Amino acid sequence: MRFEAHDANPAEEMALRWGIVSAGKISHDFVGALKSLSHEDHKVVAVAARSLSNAEDFAKNHNIPKAYEGYLKIAEDDDIDIVYVGTLNHQHFPVSKMMLEHGKHVLCEKPLTMNQKQTSELIGIAIQKKLFLMEGIWSRCFPIYTELKYILDAGSIGDVIQINVNFGFDLQDVDRLKSKKLGGGTILDLGIYALQLTQLVFKGASPLNMAVIGGLNEDGVDEYTSSIWKYPGDRIACLSTSGKAEYPNEAVIIGTRGIIRIPEFWCPTKMLAPEKTYEFKLPTTSAKFNFHNSVGLLFEAEHARKCVKSGMIESPLITHAESIQLASYMDALRASVGVVFEEDKQ
Question: pTM here?
């Protein structure tokens, strides 16, 4: 979808002006990745945090002109075109909604919201306001994913009959993942990556049924899950997540004529296909990052810029419909293991 041309920035060469919501680790990495892109294309105008001191420290570290206490000031700043929302999960919906209602385009970290109901509402606002809204599933923007789609579309491995994805880390000391009120659990944090790959490979097909097991912590969020999804055509997806231990963290796509393996599938630089091994090196940078391969966030940022400059309101790499579908899958997983957020009751 697109918004009208007069709603877009008039000059293609003008930089996309970013506002950063939250001064946490992922926001640090996102801004660090932006520094690897042209300053003529991307400019960080302001950062907002819950405390002014945190915002000011972040702004000083990244040479950002403006620092705000509270997120509303980002929404009200006329110098900002698009907002990167890097808050905790439970804040994604209200913060993104605020930004859209104030006329800002939004790139929001995954998960876009806490459930399908919120996701559908948020997308409805973006469509009504003719504003770009993208769920920050950065995986889709990596060059390896472009090659993967080409291989699958070409039928190089025949018909895909099974996908195996395991994704786990020792996250027992990460407080936000243990808390229900903060939108914790491995389904929203890790499961979305496994689900989006399955969604991509099976081209959005709806599963016929699924079987799920999982375990909850004392606060009622999932510490681990394993699920088997059956799709039309006798296709299967076997997906596992864990916050208790580090897993191999790879995706295996099994076709009738070959197998594709993707190490570090959520931010891949390598893919092993039958005919060759694909490798894409990430840009070299002096920036320090908190998370693995975070400089790869530049692919997502540049993709968002191109979408906004082209007058689009959704990304063709992760569409609104796909975000709604992913939210429904995560809702189903949570229901199966008994994770209920307060947002589900509203």
Answer: 0.95
